[in-house]
Amino acid sequence: MPTENTQAQPEPVIRLFKSDFLEFFTHISPVAVLVVFLPLIGFLLWRAARFNPAAWWNVPLAFLIGFAVMAAGGISAAPLCVPLEAG
Fold first, then answer.
1. What is the pLDDT of residue 13?
2. How distant is the alpha carbon of residue 43 from its chain centre?
3. Res 68: pLDDT
4. Over the range 51-68, which residues count as b (16 or more CB within 10 Å of their CB) and which as e?
5. Nearest CA among 15, 11, 40 for reference residue 25
6. Looking at the domain assignment, is residue 49 inside a domain?
7. Model pTM?
8. In a designed cystine with 75, which of 9, 59, 70, 71 is the match (CB 3.0 to 4.6 A)?
9. Average pLDDT in the 11-33 region?
10. Mean pLDDT on 16-24
11. How far apart are CA 67 and CA 62, in angstroms?
């Protein structure tokens, strides 16, 4: 009876570039989202409210409409909520 290898095989790394230098820039850390994109979104919301105080609510409303269109079209929001790997 053949013995089964019970060790998990690591997933193969998919490379986009042959160059290690360029490959380095294809990976993003989840921290980058917090550090770069959340302040940018906050700034743009503040700017929208500052330049048009009467209609600042259009931005969150447009986000909710876009989210509803995605859900109606069958596009899952699961990629937005990817859990971090342990270890």
1. 75
2. 19
3. 86
4. eeeeebeeeeeeeeeeee
5. 15
6. yes
7. 0.44
8. 70
9. 83
10. 87
11. 9
Q: pLDDT tens digit string along 34-84? A: 888 889 888 988 888 888 888 878 878 888 898 888 777 766 655 555 555
In a domain? residue 3: no
User: Rounded to whole angstroms, how far apart are CA atoms 77 and 81?
Assistant: 7
Taking the alpha carbons at both ends of the chain, their separation in whole angstroms is 34
Q: What is the 3-state secondary structure (H, E, C) of 15-68?
A: CCCCCHHHHHCCCCCHHHHHHHHHHHHHHHHHHHHHHCHHHCCHHHHHHHHHHH
Specify the amino acid at residue 82: V
2 within some domain = no
Number of helices (H), then strands (E), belonging to the chain: the values are 4, 0
- Asked if residue 7 belongs to a domain, the reply is no
